[in-house]
Amino acid sequence: MFKILAIFGATGKQEISIIDHVLNDSELSRQYKIRAITRDFTSAKAKLLQDKVEVVHGAILNRPSVETALTGVHAVFIMTASFLSPDVEGQISSSALPSIYELSGGKYVKVTGFDIKAKAEQYIWGLPVPSAFCSLGSFVENFESYSYLTPRKEEDVNSVRDTGKFVGAILAEPDKFDGKTLCDATKLYSLQEMIAIVSKATGKDITYKHISPDEFRKRLKLPDSVVDMFMEMITFLDETEYFGPNTENLVAWSANNARGKLSTLEEYLEAHPLRLE
């Protein structure tokens, strides 16, 4: 008998990666039936999913819709959970990020995108159900938007398409990963390594320019609160590591436990050529 895997925000790129991975995995596809949960099941993306899986309505701030969507569910994937029906039994897998506030000893307080996810993780840890987390690195798909990089020691890189390989590992062996966090990245790349790889892939002579914090602020055409968040995040990453102490070992362990071969930066650029003017 199939176990129902509910995926919130099912039309997102990471969620679709999980759906495709489960459907194409010979073992997981025999264990799990996917229920895609979305706020708008009439959208074009939702309609495309209907050819593959069950698609239902569920809005995270509408409790009745969530409870209905979770009826009979065994496992749940959520990107950032602020609410979950207490009646759900089974495995919970969630996407999370480390708390920069805690890792910095309270020095950085404005990287709310990380800290909110960390608070959601702590909430789920306290629920009386098995749970595991995927803490994601930087996506290579976003590489073209990295015009504002400042020097930092290392970058944790993975493809959004690989998300399903990490979540798939949890679904295949829930007991093994219960209470654990997978630090999802293929490997660590220094900026010098990334520049060399992109230069080779594009045939362009690329140089890396260090800019001051003030110049960085000016280049970001964003609200002050968002700029402050970026400033603190990048300063933090320059001082320490993305996943905190022992990042290199955490990434290596997670990559070794992924269910399937992970994409390297070189492979991604070969399949998706980067156009530089």
Automatic annotation (TrEMBL):
It holds the Pfam family NmrA. Keywords: NADP. The keyword NADP applies. Residues 3-88, 97-269 form the NmrA-like domain. Gene3D superfamilies: NAD(P)-binding Rossmann-like Domain (3.40.50.720), UDP-galactose 4-epimerase, domain 1 (3.90.25.10). It comes from the Eukaryota. GO terms for cellular component: nucleus. Belongs to the NmrA-type oxidoreductase family. This is Hscarg dehydrogenase. It comes from Karstenula rhodostoma CBS 690.94.
